[in-house]
Automatic annotation (TrEMBL):
<dbReference type="GO" id="GO:0015937">
    <property type="term" value="P:coenzyme A biosynthetic process"/>
</dbReference>
<dbReference type="InterPro" id="IPR027417">
    <property type="entry name" value="P-loop_NTPase"/>
</dbReference>
<keyword id="KW-0547">Nucleotide-binding</keyword>
<dbReference type="Pfam" id="PF01121">
    <property type="entry name" value="CoaE"/>
</dbReference>
<dbReference type="GO" id="GO:0005524">
    <property type="term" value="F:ATP binding"/>
</dbReference>
<keyword id="KW-0067">ATP-binding</keyword>
<dbReference type="InterPro" id="IPR014729">
    <property type="entry name" value="Rossmann-like_a/b/a_fold"/>
</dbReference>
<dbReference type="GO" id="GO:0004140">
    <property type="term" value="F:dephospho-CoA kinase activity"/>
</dbReference>
<protein>
    <submittedName>
        <fullName>COASY synthase</fullName>
    </submittedName>
</protein>
<dbReference type="InterPro" id="IPR001977">
    <property type="entry name" value="Depp_CoAkinase"/>
</dbReference>
């Protein structure tokens, strides 16, 4: 349940950093670096261990280690508690202490690998597609990109535009689904239309075959307009 566990560095790299730290602190120090396959590691089975360094928040873990050691017939370890350094620069969503979780938070938005160079892709305009369910943050990200200078194309608005009288899909939708989908003012009643296609794969495909190509065409037109605007 670590924060942003996908951004945790590989074990080999973390080991190398720890080894470098230990050698900086005391070059003559003898040490073993052991990977932990469970919450306890060798602390509950190694009879040579005498002390365990804990912090205020890991003290319970130290007590749990000693309980396991007693169950295994080993003497308790002395628990030496240290105070963790505070991070005066931490932001609201970060931990108060200096921690790897906060460091991973700060990595958000950085590239994990260089952009893939594809000669088949035009160098401009660069098109980003934002998808996701309701509440996933599409609007917030779009606003952020807009403030950075992006040209925004709202596919939902284009989806409404194709249905309006005179719109590119209006006549074909009415011809396919009948005049009963119209309001008194001639506009398409989307609820009535939705009821006709809901749960009917054939009717839904008929509708999307009409509407989606028109939306795609309008998107391409707007991409071209964005390109002209630079």
């Amino acid at each position: 349940d670590k924060v942003l566990m996908e951004l945790i560095e590989p074990y080999e790299l973390r080991t190398a950093k720890l080894r470098e730290f230990l050698e900086d602190v005391k070059p003559s120090l003898r040490y073993d670096i052991v990977p932990l396959a469970d919450p306890y590691g060798p602390a509950i089975t190694d009879p040579d261990l005498q002390c365990l360094v804990v912090s205020e928040e890991t003290r319970k873990g130290g007590d749990a280690v000693n309980k396991k050691r007693l169950e295994n017939g080993l003497p308790e370890l002395a628990l030496y508690e240290i105070v963790l350094m505070k991070d005066p620069e931490h932001s609201q969503n970060e931990e108060e202490k200096i921690s790897s979780s906060s460091l991973r938070q700060r990595l958000l938005g950085t590239l994990l690998r260089p952009p893939r160079q594809d000669p088949a892709l035009p160098s401009r305009p660069y098109v980003i597609g934002l998808t996701g369910g309701t509440g996933s943050g599409k609007t917030s990200i779009a606003k952020l990109l807009g403030r950075l200078g992006a040209f925004l194309i709202d596919a939902d608005k284009l989806g409404h535009a194709v249905y309006v009288p005179g719109g590119p899909a209006y006549e074909r939708v009415v011809a396919t689904f009948g005049a009963e989908i119209l309001n008194e003012d001639g506009t398409i009643n989307r609820k009535v239309l939705g009821a006709k296609v809901f749960g009917n794969q054939e009717r839904l495909k008929n509708l999307t075959d009409i509407v989606w190509p028109e939306i795609a065409r309008m998107v391409k037109e707007q991409i071209g307009e964005a390109d002209v605007q630079g």
